[in-house]
Amino acid sequence: MPANVSRIRSMLPIAGAGGGRASMTCRHRCSNQCDQAPPNTSNNPYFGDIVAAGASRRTVLLGGGAAFAVAGSSVAAAEPAAAGGGRPSKRSKYVYDFSSIPARSADCDQVDVPRGFRWEPLLRWGDPILPGAPRFDFEHQTARAQERQFGYNCDYVGLVRTGRRTGLLSVNHEYTNEDLMFGVTDYAKLSDEQLRIAMAAHGLSVVEVRKDGKRWRARLGSRHNRRYTASTPFRLDGPAAGDPLVRTSADPKGRTALGTFNNCSGGTTPWGTTLHGEENIHGYFNVTSVPEDQQQAYERYGFSGTGRGWERVDPRFDTGQEPNEPNRHGWIVEIDPTDPRSTPRKHTAMGRFKHEGANVIIDEGGHAVAYMGDDEKFEYMYKFVSRDKYRKRDRQHNLTLLSEGDLYVAKFTGDGFEDGVSDGTGQWLALVKDGASMVADMTVAEVLVNVRTAADRLGATKMDRPEDVDINPVNGRVYGALTNNDERSPSQIDEANPRALNKHGQIIEITPHKGDHTSTRCTWKLVLIAGDPDDPATYFNGYDKSEVTSISCPDNVAFDGRGDLWISTDGNKLGHNDGFFLMPLKGRDKGKLQRFLNVPTGAEACGPLIVDDATVFCAVQHPGEIDGATPENPASQFPYERNRQPRPSVIQVWKER
Predict the structure, then answer these.
(1) Three-state DSSP class for residue 408
(2) CB-CB contact of 335 with 273 (8 Å)
(3) What is the pLDDT of residues 390-441, one digit of tens each?
(4) Mind listing the pLDDT tens digit for each residue in 337-378?
(5) Which of 300, 365, 450, 562 is the most buried (most CB within 10 A)?
(6) What is the sign of the dihedral through the CA atoms of 487, 489, 490 and 492?
(7) CB within 8 A of 50, min separation 6: which ones?
(8) Other C-beta atoms within 10 Å of 497: how many?
């Protein structure tokens, strides 16, 4: 830790009791979403209620040291992943080859990796990535410079390979923190130039990288590098494109949306593009008026605030002037990193909600299947199945696969407790099928623009903040991070959701019926119930809890070449810094959770991205984002270089020997 950081930290209040996110984070990232009543007021069943339905036939002990079985053999084995999925690596260097590191208290400002590993920054906020971009100057920021520099608050990291040791890194820039960027705590007091800087710091970056020995190097100024900001033109495609719901005065045809923002996680497609999820879009609009026919939709998506002040430099962020502008955001974005001339697209066929991200597998039948989570309390899990099929050597065709297809939402059913297992079956309910709406009294465009309302009507299952959902390329199963839900009432305690006020979250494993990802049937079970291992309600896929590390708030998931599960966390509620964790999914160490990395104080660990079982990429988001921190008194100096201000950065970790 730098010598003066502990002194700086002693002057600042620590984020809420027991850890978790600072109020500063909640304000900037999601407009204090968690302080509002969940917008899902439907009578749809909760995941826990469904499992608990069989409890009358058996007493389930959930406290006082009583444990219960969660995983079992009743779930059918999945077939291997089809084209587009990964294959096991023969060079796995990470699995079981490190000793779990200890947790760090939330006021510790350092990056920790296991003995024998090293880390260093790869890309930092403000790095000059486009040709001719100026060097980062914290004291003299400009919108023109930021448009050509690496953006703020990096999140998703994806790599499209262009050679054995080369590639294009795609990175999300989720949100900005004007308190730490400018020392301004009130959006209303930002200058017009500061507003434009913030808009330019959002969006996405594409950066060429090359491996030199064991390390990857960013090629700053490469002609392949690009920035997408809150003002970049995007093409709307799919069934809702052109619909009256997405038309504005500036775009009367409803085909071109400006900008992408609050991009959280994403995915890399089998055809070499990257996907990016637009998440908490509700916090960017000054809601001065609402069309009567969209009142319910606005409420269902949480649009009710005054935004971030962007309407002062761009009137489309005032709903009184452009009531349909919010409908043009909240989509899955696809970019082609390999083609600088390509126009990025927003895929309306995949539905509009608060996307954490999207991950794609090519099923055995050739269809592209994408899994997605809607990151809010009591929201749903979704699946998209392409209309057309993947063609191995036809990239132009494959670039159209996410433009048309069927959209489903998940409904889970418990099978009772007779088998001693917390598992069950699931059904994917069609929202749009074969180009037609499956929801009464809603057109296809209405279903896609207002997916939450459509899913309410079908009786989808309410989940605990479904975030990243990804497909394991080795076993073909689907894993979803359910981060937490402190709105769960005591009456909803059961073996699938064993805690009221669920602070720590869990991970669900979904097995497609007979390995067919296009099937509307599946089975499910929990493989992790997070928290302190000493808590009898926690579960680590059956592994001895005396030999695992603690974990809280799983956020994103990834897989290495052996199919083992990597987990990143966001908002640790145990008073520890966030980090990366590894949990094997098979063999004698199945469920042995190990801590691989800790990020600095106030930061979130985003990613992870495992490359060739030789490099782990982590996006260190919002370092030093602690209530009371300012540019004059920063809570972190990560990445510990000449500039004493914290700079969100993508780092890499590799093994020295």
Answers:
(1) strand
(2) yes
(3) 999 999 999 999 999 999 999 998 776 666 557 889 999 999 999 999 999 9
(4) 999 999 999 999 999 999 999 999 999 999 999 999 999 999
(5) 450
(6) negative
(7) 412, 413, 414, 424, 461
(8) 26
Distance CA 276, CA 268 (A): 9
**69: confidence class by pLDDT, cuts 50, 70, 90:** very low
Q: Is 196 helix (H, G, I), strand (E, B) or coil?
A: helix
Over residues 333-347, the pLDDT tens digits come to 999 999 999 999 999
> Among candidates 143, 142, 148, which has minimal Cα distance to 130?
148
Check if the beta carbon of residue 171 is closer than 8 Å to that of residue 619.
yes
Give the separation between CA 573 and CA 637, rounded to whole angstroms: 23
CA angle 150, 154, 158 (to 5 degrees): 95
562's tokens: 């052996």
Between 566 and 485, where is the model more confident? 566
Q: Is the pLDDT of residue 8 over 80?
A: no
Within 13 Å, how many C-alpha atoms sit on residue 146's CB side?
Answer: 27
Q: Record the tokens describing residue 540, joined without a space.
A: 């680590």
Looking at residue 204, what is its pLDDT?
98
Bridge partners of 206, per DSSP, are 170, 226
| ∠ CA 483-488-493, rounded to 5° | 105
| Spatial separation of the C-alpha atoms in residues 198 and 194, rounded to whole Å | 6
Confidence of residue 82 (pLDDT cuts 50, 70, 90): very low
Cα distance between residue 501 and residue 630, in whole Å: 32
Question: 259-304: per-residue pLDDT in tens?
Answer: 999 999 999 999 999 999 999 999 999 999 999 999 999 999 999 9
- Residues 482, 486, 487, 492, CA torsion sign: positive
With a CB cutoff of 8 Å and minimum separation 6, the contacts of 537 are 62, 63, 498, 499, 529, 531
Give the number of residues written for the chain.
657
Amino acid symbol at 119: W
Task: With CA atoms as reference, report the closest residue to 187 among 387, 27, 5, 367.
Answer: 27
* Greater model confidence, 232 or 78: 232
The pLDDT value given to residue 537: 85
| Torsion angle, alpha carbons of 443, 448, 452, 457, to 10 | 30
**Ramachandran sector of residue 206 (left: φ over 0; alpha: ψ -120 to 50; beta: rest):** beta
Helix (H, G, I), strand (E, B) or coil at 29: helix
The 3-class secondary structure across 218-269, one letter per residue, is: ECCCCCCCEEECCCCEEEEECCCCCCHHHCCCCCCCCCEEECCCCEEEEEEC
Taking 70 as the threshold, does the pLDDT of residue 631 lie above it?
yes
Q: What are phi and psi of 468, to 5 degrees?
A: -65, 135
What are the beta bridge partners of residue 230?
Answer: none
pLDDT at 18 over 50: no
Strand bridging mode 478-482 / 466-471: antiparallel
Q: Under a CB-based contact definition with an 8 Å cutoff, are residues 148 and 135 in contact?
A: no
The separation between the first and the last C-alpha atoms of the chain, rounded to the nearest angstrom, is 25
Question: What is the structure's pLDDT at 414?
Answer: 77
Type of residue found at 487:
E
The pLDDT tens digits for 149-201 are 999 999 999 999 999 999 999 999 999 999 999 999 999 999 999 999 999 99
- Using the Cα atoms of residue 518, residue 522, residue 527 and residue 528 in order, give the sign of their dihedral: positive
